[in-house]
UniProtKB/TrEMBL annotation, chain A:
Subcellular location: Cell membrane; Membrane
Superkingdom of origin organism: Bacteria
One Gene Ontology cellular component: ATP-binding cassette (ABC) transporter complex
Protein name (Swiss-Prot/TrEMBL): Transport permease protein
Native organism taxonomy: Bacteria, Bacillati, Actinomycetota, Actinomycetes, Micromonosporales
The keyword ATP-binding appears for this protein: no
Transmembrane feature ranges: 43-62, 74-96, 116-144, 156-177, 189-208, 251-273
From TrEMBL, chain B:
Name of the protein in question: ABC transporter ATP-binding protein
GO cellular component: a single term: plasma membrane
Native source species: Micromonospora tulbaghiae
InterPro entries: AAA+_ATPase, ABC_transporter-like_ATP-bd, ABC_transporter-like_CS, ABC_transporter_ATP-binding, P-loop_NTPase
Listed GO MF terms: ATP binding; ATP hydrolysis activity
Amino acid sequence: MTTTTKPAAPVVATSARRPGAGALALRQGRLEITQFLRSRESVVFTMGFPIIMILIFAAIFSDEIAPGVSYTQYFITGMIATGLMTVSFQNLGIWIPIERDRGVLKRYRGTPMPKWVWFAGKVIMVVVIGIAETVLLLAVSVAMFDLDLPQTTAKWLTFGWVSVLGITACTLCGIAISSLARTARSGSAVVTPVALVLQFISGVFFVFTSLPTWMQQVAAIFPLKWMCQGLRSVFLPDSFGAREPGGSFELGTVALVLGAWCVIGLVLCLTTFRWTTKRDG
Amino acid sequence: MENELAISVRGLRKAYGDNVAVASVDLDVRRGEVFALLGPNGAGKTTTVEILEGYRQRDAGEVRVLGADPAHPDAGWRSRVGIVLQGTGEFDELSVIEVVRHFSGFYPGADDPDKVVERVGLGAKAKARTHTLSGGQKRRLDVALGIVGRPELLFLDEPTTGFDPEARREFWELIRDLSAAGTTIVLTTHYLDEAEALADRVGVIAAGRVIEVAPPNALGNRQESLATVSWRTPDGTPASAETATPTALVADLAARFGGEVPGLTVTRPTLEDVYLRMIGHS
């Protein structure tokens, strides 16, 4: 170690050079995004997975499931919802246990950083990556699979609030479920099966109404089913609403269920979040 | 500032279920001193330090760190305390300078990140991703993050575990520099030479209690304890005697041998002897 640079004396008087709270959150968000983009697995898995799935499924199934509605269009709406869930629920549920296990969270707790700044950083990362991923999916779908973008402001608005509510609920649930994993490795073991089962029963891979009734009822408890349904109201013709289980797209129920999951997720986060591993006290 | 004690602890106790990690610890650390907490694994060093750092809640006892109760740390207090934990929190995807710069943003009077990286000896590695660093280099990054806020009080939990001898010497120099600049330093270690080289005072902790606090050369009445005089008898067999008056014994031997005493040594117990005796007794 060089001793040419002498350490500065400890700070006694507090000067006010620290960035303000908002700037701290933005810095934290930028750091999280940098870390995400530099970790190749997360980029390939999160951004690439939905596109690869669309390419595969579009190549296998080319039938129409209703007049003017191809299976591919139905599937794309499901993959947009899945993409939002992957970037929030899976991403956080897998990475937070790793960071907790490595001691990254403990290290942050030892600094004067306000706790909420760390959460804000995660949310900024999820939102930015979520938008980028959705735009990419839409671009591919419009270019290759004749997906029509929403034509009215009302539909864009629906697209907006369904996505925001959905990604919020999934973010909070992802943070909450991260506390279930005891070690770095178990995060993905906890989260992946949950996400995969939800995709199968929520009308992503299969047309929802073709699933057994009990399976539909189970799926209706969780957010993904309602995110898919809300997005179908945006991207599929209005006439398709009649083919939904409730005879319409039920946007009111979509808002209600997703809102309820935001509350449940928030309560779970506040009551169960851990900055350190169990063995670490 | 408030008073001359950086840390004051009375009757500290912490149990995990039936396992009493800290039975009763009393401790005072003066401002500006280097204090080493020495003890075997499981003695309660880390639990004690993590309570002082505000990471763990105590079951009982009075604790003041920089004039405040660490059980309720606020941002102002946190910005005056630097922490180097035992385990490293790694940021694999970031470079050394990126991590240090980011953490410097949390502190009101942070030091220049480039200078800090230079000072811990990572100048040549500033742009390297942290996962490419060796164990010792990662530890230096930990130290950089601990000091970037220019703390008044720096905790170092087993800072040189895994260092090669040269890296340890360099690290000691860094600690001496920080101390010379006025930083109060509390370090835990199970290296006796480290405690002896760095600490103004050493607290020996065993089975959850502080059994003695003294400057390293006075620990366990080291200065007053019996000296061991060893030599070889004329037929070549080794002989030795413990005595409170080694000079007299050596003079006596010199007279007996009529000059040089073969294989003569006079030793007092090393810090290690004293330490092992102390923790053996507890």
